[in-house]
Structures are given as C-alpha cells and as structure tokens.
Amino acid sequence: MDEDGLITGGTPGVQLTWMDAKAGDWVVTPRYGKPVEIQALWIRALDIGAHLATECGESEYALGCRKDRMHAVESFRQRFWYEDGQYLYDTIDGPEGDDPSLRPNQVYAISLCDDLLTKEQAKQVLRTIKGHLLTPVGLRTLSPQDSRYHPRYEGGPLERDCAYHQGTVWPFLLGPFVTAWIKTFGNALETRAEARSFFNGIEAHVHETCLGHVSEIFDGEFPHHPRGCPAQAWSIAEPLRALVEELGASLTKAKTRSTGLKRPVSQERL
User: Fold this and answer.
1) Per-residue pLDDT tens for 33-45?
2) Range(s) of the domain holding residue 33
3) 26 vs 66: which has the higher pLDDT
C-alpha cells in the first residue's frame, strides 16, 4: 500500500496482473504502478474486511479497514479519471506516468464498488467500453483505435503473445460488464433486455467448439474465431454468474430458452 492508500507494484521483467503475456524477456503489458482493477479489488476487500471484523467483534480492525478504504477511495477519485477520454486510466504512477490505454479492466471499478465514480462517470465509462471494446463474444483487451491493437490471435508464439492482451477478446469479462451495466443503468425491463442481449454470441458459441462450453479467447475482429483452449472455466462461469445474479435466470430456465440446447450447461441448479 502506497502513501495514497492505493496498491502499487511492479518489477522489470515480471508480468504483474492477469494480462500476463511474456515473450522471452519482453513483458507485453507490464502495467507497473497502480492498475485500476487491483485498486477496485483492494477497496472491495477493505469493505468486506470491515464488515467481517464488525461481525466478529473486532472493532479496532474494522475501524482500520474503514479508514484505509476512505483514503483509497479519495485517492482513486482524484487520480483515475481520464478527463480527455472520459474514462479511467488503466494504470497510474507507472515508469512512464499514467497510462490512458482504453482497456476493459476499468469495468471492475463499477462492478465491485458503488462509490468510486459518479453515476454520470459510470455511464460514460460503460458507453465507451460498449463503443470500443464490446463484441458479441466478450470484451476486447484494447481499443481498435490504439496503434498496438492486434485484430487476430494467430501465428507463432511471439505473434500470439503480442495479441493476447492487445485486442484479443476475453468472454469472461462479459460478467463484470453486465453487472456494471445493471448497477449503472437500472433494472428496468428495457435495460435488462439489452444486458441479456450481450450474451447472444456466447449462447450461439456453445454449439461450435466444445459442446456446452466457452472458449478461452476470440479474435478481436469479425467473425471472431474462437482461439486458445476450447473449454475455459472462467469463460463460462462469469456469464453464468451474471445471468443468475443480475438477470434472474437459472440453469433450469435454460432448458426452455430458444437456444437449441437440449439441457443446461450444468445438471445442477446454482
């Protein structure tokens, strides 16, 4: 924890976050400093820590969590808003300063926390993500307007590592995106219908590569060919979580949806 209450890290030659592609000694997306999703996870953890400590009668520990959280939230609000782009910096306080790369990691600042952004800021962030990163099968890892953008995950190991988090689509990110969408735009029928439509491509895909499963990644550009492993746990877990928790769906209902599935992905109810 840095003096501003935020979490910082990074060592040359080491991959710091889930964007962990590395080719030889070259770290493709080092993200040294203070990555946005790490701060959201930290602030959420402090909230949970304060709650659990209170429940267990540890008032001093709870007070420490609340103080640390207040400090971190204040710093986040002051530092992470990228005014020129109307979205959040991907990383701040890195070796080259603050990084305005338009990436999906910022969605966690909305899905995990309620007070890091104003309502209008949250709406603007989600509209920007929808306009630049959303595809029928997940979120791109980098805006197509970025000069480092790679539209397809193909070629040898070096070419694939260059694309892995530089435009390649990850379907697990649909989970936090839909959570953030419902939290921000409300629970009206029209909003829920739009959020539900974000999963249409995934529903079609479960028939394509590995029956009942979702691939690890997809190309950033149409027709969004599936890549990586054909059955990835978080690729299906996060869309299912959002369907159940945010949209009120159940795996039992999946039997009657007009998707062509003869049975739900799992035989058990969530």
Assistant:
1) 999 999 999 999 9
2) 1-117
3) 66
pLDDT tens digits for range 237-269: 999 999 999 998 755 444 444 333 333 333 333
User: DSSP for 201-258?
Assistant: HHHHHTTTSSTT---SEE-SSTT--EES-S--HHHHHHHHHHHHHTT---TTGGGTST
Do residues 113 and 138 share a domain? no
Tally of structural domains, the chain: 2
Which runs of E-coded beta strand occur in 148-235? Answer: 169-170, 217-218, 226-227
pTM: 0.90
**Measured CA distances, 73 to 6, 44, 67, 128, 184 (Å):** 9, 10, 10, 22, 18
State which H helix or E strand residue 138 sits in: strand 138-140
